[in-house]
Amino acid sequence: MCGIVGYVGEQQALDVVVDGLRRLEYRGYDSAGVAVLDATGPRLQIERRAGKLANLEAALAQGRLAGTLGIGHTRWATHGAPTDRNAHPHTDCSGAVAVVHNGTIENFADLREGLEARGHELTSDTDTEAVAHLIEERYAAGEEGDLAAAVRGVCASLEGSYVLVVAHRDHPDLVVGARRNLPLVVGIGDGENFLASDVTAFIAHTREARALDQDQVVELRREGVVVTDLDGVEVGGECFHVDWDTAAAEKAGFDYFMLKEIQEQPDAVRDTIGGRFGLDGRLRLDELSISDEDVRGFEKVFIVAAGSSYHSGLVGKYAIERWCRLPVEVEMASEFRYRDPVLDRHTLVVAISQSGETADTLEAVRHARQQRAWVLTISNTVGSSMARESDAAFYTRGGPEIAVASTKAVMTQLAAVYLAGLYLAQVRGTRDPDEVRSHFRDLETVPALITEVLSRMDATRKLARDLSGEERVLFLGRHVGYPMALEGALKLKELAYVSAEGMPAGEIKHGPIALIDKGTPVVVLATRHALQAKLVTNIQEIRARGARTIVIATDGDETVIPYADHLIRLPDTKSLLSPMLTLVPLQVFAAEFAMARGLDVDQPRNLAKSVTVE
Ligand code: M6R
């Protein structure tokens, strides 16, 4: 949600900034803009356009903006419609200050009123423009030409969440950035430095990075980077090396990132589970500041997450309850803290988030920590806000996920929740080491099974194309199949814009069965498990009412054949692990269905990859 890039160095800033914005497109946006400093003027040259980056590039083609310092932005509209006028960067009265902003300034109405009363003329509907004018005032008055001090002063007066990146026409070698609640990463180069919402924007130039902490301000110059707190006191911080390169963030011959990411799943799971046992033969997490004694003291677990990550959490409940005999509640992060959940020092909160930046989940993490609960974050993003604010982190090593619809991130989250369950069981002694090892060995067989499933997907693609005219599809599952029914429905909704609903198969007779009409497509997740016989009965019930049944079943299972209009076969695996196989046809089905409708499966309408507003 909103992408930000800042650059100062020897290269033409426009090229670096626009390339960075393109790499951040996946975050979702509806307008884009840049500011490049012409040091000879000096003046800030600004171009901004509603719509996709192509519109901005067409405008830029009329006259290239030359200069070696620039800032850029892709905007996902919150305050004000996605128009040219509301696109970032925004400026002050004289055009000396240019600001790009991600987030929402909650006291914006008061700030704006004050500025207008003091004679400022604001020309957009955004909250961001007020920030440019506030910097103008501070710079001219109290701070006397110190841009970073002016930004610090303004930040102290802002309520809400923000990343700000600021350029000033009188400073040809300085970009200032600031953050609260949202991510801002510094890319450290040689004679050039970068700022961005995430490392994807600058890995073509450098793989050395430093994430800013809460309420920090960075001064970015060609020769170096200084980070301070809001009082201007310099603060230390750790750099990290990004261990993937640009190739990992490109399409590699696939029409869409999503299709590439689906194919990457066997390797993503292998990487996620690899090297998890220490020399002592015990399973370990990536970062941990919870003692074994405290782990043994847990009396309850909450799993909090949003969207697809929530579905992974639902599967996690089955694993943790089975192996650890600990009660687990799974909750949508957006609801969690507002109902005042009962949390204490004997509660573990597991936050699951691909990005590690989703505002709902991040706020749930903060709430949990305020209540003194322990927090373990499962994330695909090393150094993300959630990981840094938690007591323990478990990184899924899925590599960059660019498509808005989550695929390999969900797959690796499933691997991670199993491992987290086994870790808890190991420390709490609810499973002996041999059993932990044995479950781990089962998990190790999964990447090859996913490869096998991927090789069988032609019939699923054809079926999806045949059904792509349908406006309603139901998904049914039981036990761990139920979360995957929810995931199959979410994938179809977000990609194909059809009405899709996931339900527990046993629940359908309590109402939803009324939805079934002649020919209604119903996908049933019927891989072999303890509730198989009941599920077969459920399939009969819906088929008797005219449903067109698409049954996902285990190789060799004959029981479902009489009731399946279409059969998708999967290799056998342990029932608890079956979501890692059923997920694949659901992803392929949704992608193919949407593509057959002529839709862009990487950037579905109205959606952002990382949702950083509540
Ligand atoms: O980065 P997160 O895992 O926290 O994101 C959570 C959801 O926004 C995300 O899973 C969303 O539902 C995806 N579009 C699903 O494909």
Outline of this structure?
By secondary structure, this protein is α/β, with parallel strands linked by helices.
What does this structure look like?
There is one protein chain. This protein is α/β, with parallel strands linked by helices and 614 residues long. The chain has 3 domains: 3-248, Glutamine Phosphoribosylpyrophosphate, subunit 1, domain 1 (4-Layer Sandwich); 251-444, 3-Layer(aba) Sandwich (Rossmann fold); 454-596, 3-Layer(aba) Sandwich (Rossmann fold). Helix content is 35%, strand content 23%. It contains 19 helices and 25 strands. The strands form 4 sheets. The chain has an 8-stranded antiparallel beta sheet with strand order 3-2-4-1-10-9-11-14, with helices on one face. Strand 23 (521-526), helix 18 and strand 24 (548-554) form a beta-alpha-beta unit. Helix 4 crosses helix 5 (147-157), helix 7 (265-273) packs parallel to helix 13 and helix 16 crosses helix 19 (579-596). The mean pLDDT is 93. Bound molecules: 5-amino-5-deoxy-1-O-phosphono-D-mannitol. 5-amino-5-deoxy-1-O-phosphono-D-mannitol (M6R) binds at residues 306-309, 353-355, 358, 361, 404-406, 494, 607, 610-611.
Ligands, deduplicated: 5-amino-5-deoxy-1-O-phosphono-D-mannitol
| Residue-averaged pLDDT | 93
- The outline comes out as globular
CATH architecture of the largest domain: 4-Layer Sandwich
Gyration radius from CA atoms, angstroms: 26 Å
The neighbouring-strand order within the major sheet is 3-2-4-1-10-9-11-14
What structural class do helix, strand and pairing data support? alpha/beta
Biggest sheet layout: 8 strands, antiparallel
Strand content: 15-25%
CATH-level-4 superfamily name of the largest domain: Aminohydrolase, N-terminal nucleophile (Ntn) domain
The CATH class label of the largest domain is Alpha Beta
Count of strand segments: 25
CATH level-3 fold name of the largest domain = Glutamine Phosphoribosylpyrophosphate, subunit 1, domain 1
End-to-end distance:
12 Å
